[in-house]
Design a protein that fits this description.
With about 775 residues, the protein is an alpha/beta fold. The radius of gyration is 27 Å and the shape is globular. The chain starts with about 30 loop residues before the first helix and ends in a 44-residue tail after the last strand.
Length: about 775
């Protein structure tokens, strides 16, 4: 007699774990596997009685996909499910499906860390000790060197309520002009161009308009990896017959599917778009009636683009001359055409001009303000749009007001209850603040939700600037590379432990909901700022018990401005799933599409076209540095990687950076390649692919030194937006002996790096095939 296999596995007899199977439907062997209590059926239970699904949005990119966080009966986040929100329609990218793991991650900071000198080790201290020391240092520095000797740097992944507080805290509690944020590294070139042309800083069309277009132009955006869920809109447009034009030095996943892929040389975008507009003019494809009714400056722009015939631009850009004509005809002749762009054309010393050259093309062809026709900018950070609207940018006050405008200053001072003489003037940009730290003009700093040691260019300068500060504090929920250099680190909440709003790339304001209480010892950024303000003597201006109270003041502070949030409430956001600003009243539906009436937000209602002149990148090529280095993101990681480099599946997918280069250089896949710029050199594994220009090298930037792309990039800035020129600097490549090691993420004293996330870092080979056509096989 054969023994009952369930005898050795009593759990298999439990009706909750042994579900009867229909032999006619089950695959062969399935019953035996289940009855034998096999792995994993024997080791896992799916019994989740008491589970709660909390509707919220992803914490990462500017698409802001809807999701449910799964919360167990003990109140802890333990999983995620996609949500049928109309932004993402049940889709999540690799970062989105892993984001929940950071909430209860073993690397979380749960107590303030402090040291009085960088020569000391961190020690855990009480909140009172950390707060008292911080306030004492602020007072000491400001009493000795003036209020502007202390600065504050915020972040565009914070909720809008917190970005509002960053700006108010700097100007009212610190009384300093020096406040800026890491969105300065992201969207400010697009913002500057939008304000100049349209008088408003946001995308003109919702994502859904992409589905209606006949021609989609994507410039400088690796949509498939940086904004994966946005790809559904591209495919939707293609399904109904839209043509696709991609402008990018690399043949990215989205470029491989394009009708026209313009693989131009980094740093030549405005020359290309000027030449496209030249062809549009020469072939009589401009919409003269639209220009006459809705634009100014057209004659000046037309005269300038006459200087960019296709043969000249083709030589500058290193592309076939016929591509320029093909793009011009495809875009101008389409009944409805749209252009979207991202960091690829914005991270330049001519970033504003690059964006303006795209706006000039859209306007000249009449593709503005219509369903399926318009212009959009794809924000990189989750609150890249909302993070720059309400006062943490050095030159702006809440509601997008200018800090240089006397009436705007008067309005905010009245709301904040301060005298106008107390409101500081405009400050400087994030990179300029680092230079001021080098010169000891700024001697103290608080950083919130940023990691400049990885994300700012020219790491050597950044390290020198931070080392020169007399006091430095960071807010974070993981110990970042920048926080390691601080005197005080405040442990704060993740996005799932607080509530607040973000504005996505469409300028749609969405609400994030609290899913669990923070760990013991952790506070919200709001609480920490308000408590510091109270100890600095400004507590009456920061009596905010929670995010909702801050949002109520933000709504009032934005009322009547271009960035009007007054009609947006938490209740309406819960009910609608998101509202696009401006929204001036609580019965207003919001404004998903701008310029439908033909008017912009300039007083004359017209689009103010701007003359654009191409100039070479700031880092000159020579015999020692003949190639272009460009940087960007990967699908598995986000910005400085402080979050994603701790999540096992993402580390396994992309454990390390690489140098992507053309086969013509003679490297084998995985061989050590030294990339040398005027700032230094580092050694990466080669990823050899035909999907990149022979004169260009690409390195993803999510890792710290000694594998940091931003140890090599140049800290040249756009003169108007002050954005760094990440996307092009001169370099050379050399054979090397050994690939530089990838460091583990920092952890608090007494902890070790979470081992499950670190195993893959020692893999010396770059990732395989999604990176592009022709990628060499691993060997």
């Amino acid at each position: 007699m054969t023994a009952d296999p369930r005898a050795a596995h009593p759990r298999a007899a439990d009706p909750r774990t042994a579900v009867p199977l229909d032999p006619s439907l089950a695959p062969p062997g399935t019953r035996a596997f289940r009855d034998a209590g096999g792995i994993p059926a024997d080791r896992w239970r799916a019994d989740q009685d008491g589970e709660t699904l909390v509707p919220t949005h992803c914490c990462f990119c500017g698409v802001q996909c809807g999701m449910y966080l799964r919360v167990d009966r003990g109140g802890k986040v333990f999983g995620v499910e996609p949500r049928n929100h109309d932004i993402n329609r049940m889709r999540l990218c690799p970062k989105g499906i892993n984001a929940y793991q950071q909430v209860n991650h073993p690397d979380r900071l749960t107590a303030p860390l402090m040291r009085r000198s960088r020569d000391e080790e961190f020690r855990e201290v009480s909140w009172d000790e950390a707060l008292d020391f911080t306030v004492a240092e602020i007072r000491r520095i400001q009493q000795s060197h003036g209020n502007d000797a202390f600065g504050l740097l915020g972040g565009a992944s914070l909720f809008s309520e917190k970005t509002y507080l960053v700006g108010k805290f700097a100007r009212v509690a610190l009384k300093s002009r020096h406040v800026d944020y890491n969105g300065r590294l992201c969207m400010v070139s697009a913002a500057g161009a939008n304000k100049l042309a349209f008088g408003i800083d946001r995308a003109g069309n919702p994502f859904s308009d992409i589905l209606l277009t006949d021609c989609l132009l994507i410039a400088g955006s690796n949509v498939g990896e940086c904004f994966p869920v946005m790809t559904q809109y591209v495919w939707g447009a293609r399904d109904r017959g839209a043509s696709l034009i991609v402008v990018d030095p690399r043949e990215t996943a989205i470029a491989r599917t394009a009708d026209i892929h313009v693989a131009l040389k980094p740093g030549t975008d405005s020359a290309f778009f000027n030449s496209v507009l030249h062809v549009v003019v020469e072939e009589g494809l401009t919409d003269e009636a639209y220009l006459a009714a809705h634009a100014t400056g057209w004659e000046e722009v037309k005269a300038k683009v006459a200087e960019y015939p296709p043969y000249r631009a083709a030589e500058i850009c290193g592309i076939p001359v016929e591509q320029i004509t093909q793009v011009a005809r495809a875009f101008a002749r389409a009944p409805k055409a749209m252009a979207w762009h991202a960091r690829g054309i914005e991270h330049h010393s001519q970033g504003v001009e690059n964006c303006l050259s795209v706006i000039n093309l859209c306007t000249a062809t009449g593709h503005i303000g219509k369903p399926g026709a318009g212009y959009g900018t794809i924000t990189g950070q989750g609150n890249g749009q909302g993070g720059r609207e309400h006062g943490q940018k050095s030159d702006l006050l809440p509601g997008g007001r200018s800090i240089m405008n006397e009436e705007h200053r008067r309005q905010i001072c009245e709301i904040w209850g301060i005298e106008e003489s107390e409101l500081p003037p405009a400050g400087t940009s994030m990179m300029e603040m680092v230079w001021q730290m080098q010169r000891r003009e700024i001697r103290g700093l608080i950083g919130i939700c940023n990691n400049p040691f990885v994300s700012l260019p020219n790491y050597g300068v950044v390290k020198e600037g931070y080392d020169a500060t007399e006091f430095h504090a960071q807010f974070d929920f993981f110990l970042s590379e920048t926080a390691v250099n601080a005197h005080v680190v405040f442990p704060v909440t993740t996005w799932a432990e607080d509530e607040g709003v973000m504005a996505n790339a469409e300028a749609r304001v969405v609400k994030h909901n609290k899913a669990q209480d923070p760990p013991p010892g952790v506070r919200t950024d709001t609480w920490v700022m308000c408590e510091l303000a109270r100890r600095l003597g400004a507590g009456d201006k920061f009596a905010f018990p929670d995010s909702r109270a801050v949002f109520d003041e933000l709504r009032i502070a934005s009322a009547g401005t271009v960035n009007d949030y007054y009609g947006i409430t938490y209740e309406r956001l819960e009910e609608t799933g998101g509202i696009a600003w401006p929204c001036p009243t609580t019965d207003h539906p919001g404004t998903p599409r701008l310029f439908e009436d033909g008017r912009t937000y300039h007083p004359d209602g017209r689009i103010h076209l701007q003359v654009v002149e191409w100039h070479p990148p700031m880092d000159p090529y020579d015999d020692e540095h003949p190639m272009s280095l460009t940087t960007g993101r990967t699908v598995a990681h986000f910005l400085s990687g402080n979050q994603t480099r701790r999540l096992g599946a993402l580390v396994e997918q992309t454990p390390r950076p690489w140098a992507e280069l053309h086969p013509s250089h003679g490297f084998r896949n995985g061989e050590p390649v030294r990339v040398v710029t005027r700032r230094g050199s580092e050694v990466f594994p080669a990823l050899v692919t035909e999907a990149i220009r022979p004169d260009t090298v690409f390195i993803p930037y999510h890792w710290p030194v000694p594998t940091a792309a931003n140890a090599l990039t140049i800290d040249a800035l756009d003169p108007r937006s002050k954005i760094p020129e990440y996307k092009v600097c001169a370099c050379r490549i050399e054979h090397a002996e050994k690939i530089d090691d990838v460091p583990a993420p920092p952890v608090a004293p007494g902890q070790v790096s979470y081992p499950e996330t670190q195993v893959s870092r020692t893999d010396p080979l770059p990732p395989t095939a999604p990176q592009g056509r022709g990628t060499s096989e691993r060997s």
